[in-house]
Amino acid sequence: MAARRKVIIVGAGFGGLQCAQALIGKPVDVLLIDDRNYHLFTPLLYQVASCLLAPSEIATPLRTLFRHAPNVRYRQGRVVRVDTDAKLLALADDDVVAYDTLVLATGSTTNYYGKSDVEQQALGLKDLGEALRLRNHVLTCLERAVIEPEGDDRRRHLTFCVVGGGPTGVEYAGALAELVRLVLPREYPELDRRDVRIVLVEGTDRLLPAFTPRLSAYAKKTLERLGVEVRCNSLVASADDRSVTLVDGTHLATYSMVWAAGVQPADPLDQPPAGPSGRVAVDDHLRAVGVDDVYALGDVAAGHDRKGATLPMLATPAMQEGRYVAREIAEGPLAKPFRYRNRGTLATVGRSAAVGKIGPLQFTGFIGWVVWLTVHLYYLIGFGNRVRVLARWAYYYARLERPVRIIVRADERS
């Protein structure tokens, strides 16, 4: 009997997870390697950071997902080197693993555009640890503002600069404004919510550049109605632990700079070599160019749409690519190349408001929010998580509450 082919998938994000799930029951042995032992539903990270959802509601243990999959195994580890000639992976714990087919799905990391001072001061919103750190930071700022006398230090604690007007920045700015609107009047009588300042900084001429101008204008109007100051055509020039300076000379006195201004592909391990964009060059079957038996997908791969444009670094292209690569591996080279189908784009803008475009249809307001809610519940991994998140959203909507407001630090001792 011929030995079964060994497939290694590096990365358990949207693309890697879809690929592994699509290979369940196929005549291959799959090893999924990721340093995190859970799959994270990153589109809802901002709701953890803004005190609405608990971490366990958007993260699912990988061993739970594959406990009934006899041919898929998970290993916690970090791949540090790939030898494509010998078909070997070196892990950080010095172990070496052989493969027959390799799938690189290592995702992306935050892009600070070479600004080391910004990277040092910024609060990111890319993974669960950063979301919890941001939640702790915002709640701590409110607590410290209570005991600070009127003056510059209190204003710094109550000023929040959000950098990046894409979906993550817009959604977090709106959620933060709702947190302030709902919680401060009832639980922080010492503070006037009108003293809280939220500034959203975007480098282009409008928010949500990937959306239509009409939807961008609606998002801006809605955020401003919530009290968010929107500054388009503006970039961060520098930052320190007490302020953020914009390129036009505007000086924001703040202890809080939230960075949602962009991502870059994670280190593709130098093999196969990345292209000028930092993403691995792939052919129209998502095979890495120049090496054998290696696929790349998701944010780390420079896949293209029907018009030849590089695919955006979003969850939906990664998921479609993951399923396609699984078919290639299970069935052999497919006759048809990979073709991305744009399922639309959605973003929330505060409570009961969202913008979205699905095909020719455009949504705003409450209808857009319902569409956004439905789509995100559908893609959320695990039935239990769907039930819990739906219950949490219903509770939040009815009670005007943000219930997850516990400051927990990693160094606490009982």
Structure description:
This protein is of the alpha/beta class. The protein folds into two domains: 5-110 and 264-331, FAD/NAD(P)-binding domain; 116-261, 3-Layer(bba) Sandwich (FAD/NAD(P)-binding domain). Helices cover 32% and strands 24% of the residues. It has a five-stranded parallel sheet, with helices on one face. A five-stranded parallel sheet has the order 11-18-12-13-14. A three-stranded antiparallel sheet has the order 6-7-8, with no helix packed on it. The model has no long low-confidence stretch (mean pLDDT 89).
Kindly provide the name of the CATH class of the largest domain. Answer: Alpha Beta
CATH architecture of the largest domain: 3-Layer(bba) Sandwich
Task: Tally the helices.
Answer: 11
Which outline best applies? Answer: globular
How are the strands ordered across the major sheet? 5-2-1-9-21
Radius of gyration: 22 Å
User: How far is the first residue's CA from the last residue's CA?
Assistant: 57 Å
Q: Give the number of domains.
A: 2
Give a quick account of the main beta sheet: strands, pairing sense, barrel closure.
5 strands, parallel
Which whole number gives the mean pLDDT? 89
Structural class: alpha/beta
Strand residue percentage: 15-25%
CATH homology group of the largest domain? FAD/NAD(P)-binding domain
Q: What are the segments in which pLDDT stays under 50 over at least 5 consecutive residues?
A: none
- The beta-strand count equals 25
Specify the helix fraction band.
25-40%
CATH topology of the largest domain: FAD/NAD(P)-binding domain
